[in-house]
Fold CHAT domain-containing protein.
Amino acid sequence: MTDIVVERTGEIGDDKPSLNLTSLLVFGIPDFPEGKCFPFVNASSTRWEVRDSIPMPNDVEGIDCIVKGEEGEDEGYTHLSAVRVSRAIMDRESRLTEKIGLSAPGMQLTLSSKVVVMATEANENIAFKFRAVGNEFQTRFENSGNLQDIDYAIIANRSALAFIPLDSANRLNALISLATTLVKRIERTGALCDNDDAIMLTREALEMSPGNYDALNILGLSLYFRFVRVGELSDINEGISALQNVVSHHPQQDYRLVLLLNTLSAALGGRFQKTGELADLSEGIALLQRAITLIPSNHHLMHCLLNNLGGSLALRFDRSGELSDIAEAITAQRRAVGLIPQGHPALPAYLKLLGKSFGVRFRRIGDLKDITKAIALQQKAVELTPHGHIDLPARLDSLGTMFSLRFRRTEDLSEASEAISLRQRAVYLTSAGDIELPARLCNLGSAFQDRFAITREPSDMAEALLLKRRAVDLTDPDDLELPMRLSTLGNSVRIGCKSTGELSDADEAVSLHRRAVALIPQGHGEVPNLLLNLSNSLTHRFQRTGNLSDLDEAAAVTRRGIESAPPGHPHRHYLLLRVAETCIMRFERTQNISDVSESIAAAQRALEIVSPGHVDLAHTHRTLGWVLSRRSELTTDKGDLDASISHYRAAALSTLGSLEIRLDAAKSWAALVTHHYPQSPEILPSFDTALGLLALFAGLDRTVQGRYVQLQNTSGIALNAAAAACAFGREDKALEWLEQGRCLVWSQLNNLRTPLDDLQEHDGALAKKIADVSNRLPGAGSSRDSSSLDMPLSQKISLEAEARAHMELAREWDELLKTARAIPGFESFLKPLSCSSLTTNLPEEGPIVVINVDQSRCDAIALLSGMDEPLLIALPNFSVEKATKYRTDLKSQLQSRLLRARGPSDSAAPAGESMPRGIRSAKIGMHEDHPVRGVLQGLWEDVVKPILNALGISKATEASEEALPRIWWCPTGPLSFLPLHAAGVYRGTDPESALDYVVSSYTPTVTAITDRVKNRRSIDTQVSGLFLTNQPCAPDAPPIHGTTKEVQSIFRRVEESGVRALELEGGDMTVDQCLESMQNYSSIHLACHAAQNAAEPLQSRFLFHNGSLELATILKTNLKDADLAFLSACQTSTGDEKVSDEAVHLAAGMLAAGYRRVVATMWSIGDTPAQEVATDFYDFIIAQRKVDTGTAFDGTLSAHALHHATQRLRGRLGDSENSLLAWIPFVHFGY
């Protein structure tokens, strides 16, 4: 230690004590057991210097320094350890500084010095020993992969370097050894500080020995690693230059040259990924192929070279599309995996890369076995990767990519969810400043976008946009990946625009794609893809605005894309399809026949080059079917028509590609055949295919709301099919198709509640499993917490885990059904029923009448107990147009009287007026015309009366003592919103209506009734009873005080009759108490506000004083003994016009929840009519009770009771327009 100085630091002032220091006493120096004293010179009041040097021998742990005052007293003390001194030497600190502990408070002293290593034989020997230890730990690390071993190797090599003077010849090797161990650790941890140290050490080594190939090799490798982490092009350029220098001057074809060639190839590959320069990649491949020839096949480096060669060939295939490249890549990587020892730390990386190559080939060829292998290999790679390993995020992200690829092929939502989950974990484990973070954010956004394409969940698209915008923001303006990220963001904005409808989104998408195309270097492999994306956005904007210049530019851009995509390019067939689509769109505007010809030619070329297993084969067939169909309309060429049908058929029957595209193709196939060949036997398989795909389109792996969103764009298929079947004389098939293609969501929920008695007898364990999954699925699919954009990533990961659990449950359900259907006798287990099965369990009380309303024709299909075949009743005077007009007229009258749906925040009624439940009332003025009567008369004359006549049902006379027959109406389409039960003529001298002929009930499907007949069983007497609640003052809703009188009156009547009953009023009841009472009482009467939610059907709810009860919550409850639900609330049977055949209302929901029968309302009801109907209803049921029923409550006669109650209300009010609107809304659903 030389140039030793003691200094006073901190605050110095008059109030601080002075110091008079005289010397420094040092203990630990050999031959001076009592310490050696070093006097201070050049002393002042704040600084004292030691002229001599203080030795620190190699064999001491450190020295103790005591500062002496003028009286010889100890003023301060510090200890200088040998480790601290060595570290100062290694870090090349200009001065070593230590604080001195003082005996007197309020003062601060520091001891500083220069540290100089003396060139002694002893120091050199110690350095040699440290290097030997470092080599030993490095070898252990290379064999074990234990990170602690390389840590010890670095410590040993740092210590060695500390004992070697700057001018020693041995320093060169010590520098290279330390840099080598740092690079080994960089490969595992990616620590930038290690990177910087390695580069600094190798630069020093090259100053000592310019051209030293070991130093150049490590420098090149270190710069490459830093480039990978930071992305500075200057690093990789310098690294490649250093490595090329070594390779070009390397004298021998030996092991070291092999290492250099491998490193240089990796660096060239890294630069290719930054610049897109294919020559770099090809040069790297050539270097690896040369390296492989320099070593024997059993050499320990062979597996490394083969793995790297395979990775580079796969990269080149991704650009060139040359199939020989990917075949050679997989062969090389398989050899690498076979050669590498089990347990080798590089094995996970090899497995990941081999899996990636299989994924790349799958994307091109479409062989499902390739992507299955890819996933298995990469899953193994992730399993073998230790937690905290630097490559774990990359491996998770890559595995997510593989799941995304398979999802795009299978559309299995569990795989989409798995991809999201894996990529979320990858992002979570990636540090904020990591160069890979933008890519991983973008990939995660793409995973959400993939799922949105199937589910249409707005939260998925919002998440995709958020992630991709963040990725673009984090991408350096000079980064070559920026154009691709701008383009993928543009895709998300365009797809999201289809949901939002905002023109500004369409403009932004075009702008993003223009930027991407402007930034991408000419000749880059992604140019065709970026041009395709720009064309898609321009086409989308044209569809929004009709601006023909956008379509012209889209066509021109697409042609540029084709020119830039060499034969074999993976996006070439997409570009040809885009040409076909833009040309046919332009023809629609310009009527230029040459556009049609060009469109067909492009689509045919696309079909020629797409591989048989490609995921977009169905898309290609559908596009060709579309353009040929358009030409056949112009030319009436039968050849074009038949070819169009053939291509639509091929797309529909394909097992590959988008389910949405295949369903659309099936619909087009069926429509063309039905229209042009109405007697063709092909009609049946075309609609069978369409309806089979429709069932998959709204599978149990989606939430209930997600299924409704999907079905909005597919409504009408079953109705089209049934109309075609009726025209074909196959009313049995029409019935089957209507049952299969309508009320899909409720049918799924009903299936989950199907009794399993028969299966239990055959296979009890399987029945138990099915029962368990069926109990859990409604809750899993009924609702899911939404992910908000500002939610922490950890919480989003948890939500995704819930979604994944739901998908797995749905998958398990499908597998259990396959197992059950493999059992002889259970082949049709929970499949849509055949017509013969439906007619087996018909109710004896009356017919079920399904009314199909289609553009081509309208028919009724009646099912009567005792008849094996359905009865077809044509309705030639009815039409979709009439149904729609009646619906519009009735809706207009309801709105004019403020009897339409309003939120619970509407103000209370004026004093003295009756308050409808859920809606404020208004004084109803007189109308000169009679639109309501007109609607009811039209329904009577065109629909109901013809059906009753065909069924032989006659009008009851006043003298008749026989009970009216029952009838179950099952309307479709716009007829679902019209009151068939009240159809009739209400003016003139001889009025008549349906009420004079039958007791009406409604049912969403035939199966909903036949299942009740088949599984009819008595209700547990311990549960049988009536639970009533009135909720007159729910928060944010107008008061409905009449509910109190209504419920109290009913409760008193039923209690007096001996019925087991419970009444809870207003604030005395919580939501949980209501649910408990629903389980403890077979029947319920809810007198309250109801809020129907068409957008989120399962969030439809009943409003209480203390919260609200959602339908989703009811569906999760086990109501095995549910009988009657009387919903004395407003609009509880009002459906959603967007999915008219899905019965999206509370009444159907309560049936799905387990209730056998439901009394509901079609629109808002007044307090007084509600009370009167309810009272008369229960009076009828009580009057019909049998003497021996004890305390039980039986809702079997609820349809007759409602008929009786509404007739009494009608008798009091009459048949004026106002009166009709007061008693018509009460309806009965179920058995």
Observations:
- The radius of gyration is 41 Å.
